[in-house]
Amino acid sequence: MLVPQRHSAIVDLVREHGGVSVEELAARLEVSPSTIRRDLNHLDRQGRLQRVRGGGAVEADETPFARVAAHRAEEKDRVGARAAAVVRERDVVLLDIGTTCAAVARHLRGREVTVVTASLAVVDELRADTAVELIVLGGLLRPSYLSLVGALTQQAIAQLSADIAFIGTSGVRPDGTVLDSTGAEVPVKHAIAASSQRTCLVATSDKFPGSGLLPVCALSDAHMIITTADPAADPLPALEGTATEVLFA
């Protein structure tokens, strides 16, 4: 079996079973566990699947972007409008991947700002706008989520100094841990936060609380949170009196 065929077989097995051990994949495909681990690392970098912490199982990351965008679309639009309102003229804005950040981009149309992004969805929102200066970061394409990831993306972000960054999340634990479900995206989020004077988390109400595979940061690490969540939703009340500002859309 050729390597591309083996990669496709791995993805098919993951989609079918939801989680498959390294040993089971090795037995089914008649290769060594070390070969499977290399395959999983490669497929994870491509965004075709995601390794579970510990490396014993994998899970598919193939939900189409359009389907995710349609979920709570009205809430995302409200968050996007509220987020765009805190952007100042001529700001340099770093926009994360994800459907809520794409909504932020939509509300930046016509503004004299510079937008830097690795999200092709953001590019689609702004590419025809003559007022916005749009900078697109390079990297490895994740077709399922219209994003660019990897070392090239992180290196490019590290050279920037943005006025404000907007990042998304797959969910926030009650203890305030901000999560993401895709390993390839977490280092990009870290780079975005490190290269911006202000970091703003944008999230709809279903993210409080929410789930995810990997920790990104603590909620209190963000300078601002913009959400449609109930003010009493954990862990938002714990932020009272801290330096983190919470805005409700």
From TrEMBL:
Gene Ontology terms, MF aspect: DNA binding; DNA-binding transcription factor activity
User: Which species is the source of this protein?
Assistant: Actinomyces bowdenii
- What name does this protein carry? Lactose phosphotransferase system repressor
- Keywords, alphabetical: DNA-binding, Repressor, Transcription, Transcription regulation
* Superkingdom, natural source: Bacteria
InterPro entries hit by this protein: Carb_Metab_HTH_regulators (IPR050313), DeoR-like_C (IPR014036), DeoR_HTH (IPR001034), NagB/RpiA_transferase-like (IPR037171), Tscrpt_reg_HTH_DeoR_CS (IPR018356), WH-like_DNA-bd_sf (IPR036388), WH_DNA-bd_sf (IPR036390)
**Annotated ranges, domain HTH deoR-type:** 3-58
Function, please?
Repressor of the lactose catabolism operon. Galactose-6-phosphate is the inducer.
Q: What is the lineage of its organism?
A: Bacteria, Bacillati, Actinomycetota, Actinomycetes, Actinomycetales
